[in-house]
Write a structure and sequence with these properties.
This is Phage tail protein. The protein has 194 residues and is mainly beta. It has 1 helix and 13 strands. It is elongated, with a radius of gyration of 26 Å.
C-alpha cells in the first residue's frame, strides 16, 4: 500500500463527520454483484434519496462457505452501525420489527424461523409438549418430532415419496401402495395380506 493511502486510511475522521451509535436504515438492494453477502441501504437520518455503497452484514458463524444465512429483503428495516463512527463504513447489525413489519406470532417458549412466504421451523420448549416442527407455508404439510413419546409424524395433503437408489413410493390411507423395482422382497417374522 502506498504511503499516501496509508496516511489517508489512518487519518482520523473529523469529529463533526462522525455518526456515533447506530441508526435505522431501509434495505434498497440485495443483488450483490460479487456475492459477498452485502446489501445497499438508504439512511433516513441522512437522506431518503441517496443509496449507500455495498454494506457488509453481521451474521452468526460467518466463514468460508459457511454460516447462518438469513438475508433481509428490499424495504426491510435494519439497524446500521459505523466503524469508528465513519459514515463511509456502515455495517448492518440486524433487522428490526415494527408496526408495519410484525414478528411471527409465537409463544414465549418457542423459537421460530419463518421465511418470507411463511415456511416455518418451530422449536417448542413448552414443558411436557416439547417438539420440533417443520411446516410449509400452507400449514397442511409438516414433519413433527414429539419428545414426550419419541415419535415422528409426517402429515401431507399429497403423496409421500421416499427414494433411495431406486423408486419406492408409499401412499397414505385408502390408497394403494406401489413398490417398484427389478426385485421386491418383503421380510417379516409375521406378515398378513388382506
Amino acid at each position: 500500500m502506498p504511503l499516501g493511502d496509508l496516511v489517508s486510511l489512518l487519518a482520523p475522521v473529523e469529529a463533526s463527520d462522525r455518526i456515533n451509535g447506530v441508526t435505522i436504515a431501509i434495505v434498497t438492494n440485495v443483488q450483490d454483484p460479487k456475492k459477498l453477502g452485502r446489501v445497499k441501504v438508504k439512511l433516513p437520518l441522512l437522506s431518503m434519496d441517496d443509496e449507500s455503497d455495498w454494506v457488509r452484514m453481521l451474521t452468526p458463524m460467518a466463514g468460508n462457505g459457511q454460516g447462518f444465512y438469513c438475508f433481509p429483503q428490499v424495504n426491510d428495516e435494519v439497524l446500521v452501525g459505523f466503524e469508528q463512527g465513519d459514515p463511509q463504513r456502515p455495517y448492518v447489525l440486524g433487522a428490526l420489527w415494527s408496526a408495519s413489519a410484525m414478528p411471527p406470532q409465537a409463544a414465549v417458549s418457542q423459537r421460530q424461523l419463518v421465511s418470507r412466504s411463511g415456511h416455518k421451523i418451530i422449536l417448542d420448549d413448552t414443558e411436557g409438549s416439547e417438539r420440533v416442527e417443520i411446516r410449509d407455508r400452507t400449514g397442511k404439510n409438516r414433519i413433527t418430532i414429539i419428545s414426550k413419546d419419541n415419535s415422528l409424524v409426517i402429515e401431507t395433503e399429497g403423496e409421500i415419496t421416499i427414494q433411495a437408489k431406486g423408486k419406492l413410493t408409499l401412499s397414505g390411507k385408502g390408497v394403494d401402495i406401489d413398490a417398484q423395482g427389478s426385485q421386491v422382497n418383503f421380510k417379516a417374522s409375521q406378515m398378513e395380506v388382506k
